[in-house]
Design a protein that fits this description.
It contains 13 helices and 12 strands. It is an alpha/beta fold.
Length: about 350
Amino acid sequence: MKYKPLGKTGLYVSELTLGTMTFANEDSAFGQTLGATGQDLATRMVDLALEAGINIFDTANMYSDGVSEIMLGKALGARRKDAIIATKVYFSGTAGPNDLGTSRLAIMREVEGSLKRLGTDWIDLYQVHSFDPTTPLEETLRALDDLVRQGKVRYVGLSNFAAWQIAKADGLARQMGTERFCSVQAYYSLVGRELEREIIPAAMDLGLGTLIWSPLAGGFLSGKYTRDGEAAGRRVSFDFPPVDKKRGYDVLDTLREIAAAKGASVPQIALAWLLHKPGVTSVIVGARKEEQLIDNLGAAAISLSDEEMARLDAVSALAPEYPHFMAPLQRGESLYSQLAGDQ
């Protein structure tokens, strides 16, 4: 297992993160939709992750209405000191007018709930789960800064922000002298490369680490889906994140060819591709079954050649959008000469 610094912090995280969205009870709505491990299997998965060298675990206050945090806390037990816990704030299981978002009121309430459920005195990485258009960023930043100063939170991150929102948050934090976000959690996969347009460049420019969620596109890249018919799985009841399936099946064809040549599984190659991409700090893997997690952990040992990366890049490439289809000009060049040279 390799370890990388999380942004410009002194915190090193494993290149794989254990995601705990499936830490739920079978009779819960969350568990019925996404799959549920129950406590015993959740503990077994934490054991396997630690044995493999994973040191960071991702959860959220809203996963199974807080049950994910409870199960993670119990699974870690006395090993809490050896783990980096990342959880999130924004969503809530209740529907009061002040329950949603990242106001000072919501943040201060939700952090206490997460600490209690996790059975810990501090949260290593506290992430804003979504951009809140109804709360000034200044208010959110000051509240998070207070939590760091109080010792309840060590680092702060953000998730599901647009690139301009990331840049605005970073600029405001610098201007105000508050704790800066150190990481971005975002969706990225071979069939979901949109963040390469703006989000990854913004994160790299600002020195932010990245945590990648749904690297297998909600199971689409698990290898069980084909053009002939989709197998039973999570996407049957929860078709998310969205996938261009015409292009997606071409990606799967290439994944299967490379996996067969390397004696690996399709998910392992899809995860390894991400581990080779610039700007990626850690990839979040989660599972409903022990064998799925064991297979995912094997991705850390796979090396892809430049030719294999090029094949996967080509088959999964997005059409460039404005302004990215505009060729950059160097000093001394003219648009006319460049266009003439292309003819």
